[in-house]
Each structure stands twice: as structure tokens, then as C-alpha cells.
Amino acid sequence: MSKKTAKPVMAVNIGISEKDRAAIAKGLSHLLADTYTLYLTTHNFHWNVTGPMFNSLHAMFMQQYTELWNAVDPIAERIRSLGHVAPGSYAEFAKLSSLPDAPSAPPKALEMVAILAKGHEGAARTARAMFDLVDKASDEPTADLLVQRLTVHEQTAWMLRALLEE
């Protein structure tokens, strides 16, 4: 039997139907792709930021990409806990993410800030869109994970937008 068609030794029986687990895992896969895409963009901007705000943005972007890096594992592990395979390739993330890839040429510092603010808002929308399904399925662990992600994405987007005020 090939790896692709192999069945788990034990069926997943955690009190959430297979249909709901599959739908939740699909939503979490989108959130994982958004998170990873935002991580890559933030790390790219950390490396390539220039200008008078270099020191503060370089440090802030490092804090943000570190938080995003630490977020991908819990999302992927929740997908696995639901009995599904977590996506893990650039090709899969590109298909699943609602966020654009980082620009090929580094933008100016404040444009980086705007791109990241939009990215955090997009990731927040992806997380928020899952709540009805998660609530219906009584999937409290996923709901808790979504609340944690929303808290970070909304606060980070606010802080980034604040930098754009004149």
C-alpha cells in the first residue's frame, strides 16, 4: 500500500465528525498558509528594510517574524490532531494563502509597513471565517487557537497602521 492511500492504524474518534474535522482542517490549512506567507514576507522585509526608520523597523520585523514562526507549528499540529495532513510546501502554501507573496523588489519602508498591516488583517479574516464551523462542531481547541491568532493579528495590524499615521 502506498503512503498516499495508507489508512491510519486507528480511526480518529474525538467527538467531531469526519466531515467537520475535514472542513476545519481545510480552514486551518488556509490559516497556516497565510501565517507562513506572512512570516516569509516579514522576514524578507527584516532583511531588506532601509531608511531613517531602519533600526526600529528591523527590530520590530524580527519580533513579528519570530512570533509568526512560533505560530506555524501549533496550527499544523492542530490539523494533525484532527486526523489530516498539514500542508508544508511553497507550492501548497501559494495555492492556499489569501495573501500575496512578498514583492520581488523591496519596497520603501512605509510601504513594507502597509503590506504587513494588510497581511495581518487578511490572516485575521481567514481565522475569523472559521468560527461558525468550529462553534458548530464544538471544537474548543481550534476555537482557542483562533482566538490566540486573532489577538496577535489584530493587535499587530493596529500597531503597523499606527506607524502610517501622519
UniProtKB/TrEMBL annotation:
One of its GO terms (molecular function) is oxidoreductase activity, acting on metal ions. CDD domains: DPS. It comes from the Bacteria. Signal peptide: none annotated. Residues 26-165 form the Ferritin/DPS domain. PANTHER family: DNA PROTECTION DURING STARVATION PROTEIN, GENERAL STRESS PROTEIN 20U. This is DNA starvation/stationary phase protection protein. It comes from Hydrogenophaga borbori.
